[in-house]
Amino acid sequence: MRAFIDRHREAFGVEPICKVLQIAPSGYWLHAARQKDPSLRSERAQRDEVLMPEIQRVWEENHQVYGADKTWRQLNREAIEVARCIVERLMARLGIQGAARGKVVQTTVSNPAAPCPLDLVHRNFKADRPDQLWVSDFTYVSTWQGFVYVAFVIDVFARMIVGWRVSRNMRTDLCWMR
Questions:
Q1: What domain range includes position 66?
Q2: In this structure, are 80 and 8 located in the same domain?
Q3: Could you say which of 94, 126, 154 is where a domain stops?
């Protein structure tokens, strides 16, 4: 809103715009004063202005891989005392983050042209007795040796797994239980 008032204040004046927007003109004038004189800003805002370039510098000096924790530790080693939560908040404000470990695994390769399976129970997952309705699901689990894929069948009444199969690959024959 402040940017809107700044753009249109010459044509309409501050008070009429504030009246239409239902905001107090004093709030706008305080903002304008702080823009002209940064010493009128809050202590937090002033500290943030000092810390953001330092956080950016540490992040860039370390090949843009440091997260909030390592950036915070480096700043404290350099005698720039700051709380870890502040580093985290300012890194988010700067739009920077550390590198994430691990490899990205693509688990779904969707094909919009492929036909979807029919919903034979019409999203009604209720059963009055055991073995009346079985549903299946498919997921993956990360292990030390890599991902394994698990297909299982659940009895809706008992909410118990009645069958399952594990595989190292994600082929459709995994889901066919005989």
A1: 2-94
A2: yes
A3: 94
Q: Judge if 106 and 142 occupy the same domain.
A: yes
Q: How many CB atoms lie within 10 A of CB 65?
A: 12
How many structural domains comprise the chain? 2
Q: Are 177 and 121 contained in the same domain?
A: yes
- For the stretch 119-137, pLDDT in tens is 888 888 999 999 999 998 8
> Between the CA atoms of 68, 69, 70 and 73, what dihedral angle is there, to the nearest 10 degrees?
110
Q: Which residue has the higher pLDDT, 84 or 116?
A: 84
Who contacts 171 (Cβ-Cβ below 8 Å, separation ≥6)?
Answer: none
At what angle are helices 25-36 and 2-12 packed, to 10 degrees? 100
pLDDT of res. 178? 57
Q: What is the H or E stretch that residue 137 is in?
A: strand 134-143
* pLDDT tens by residue, 85-101: 999 999 999 999 999 88
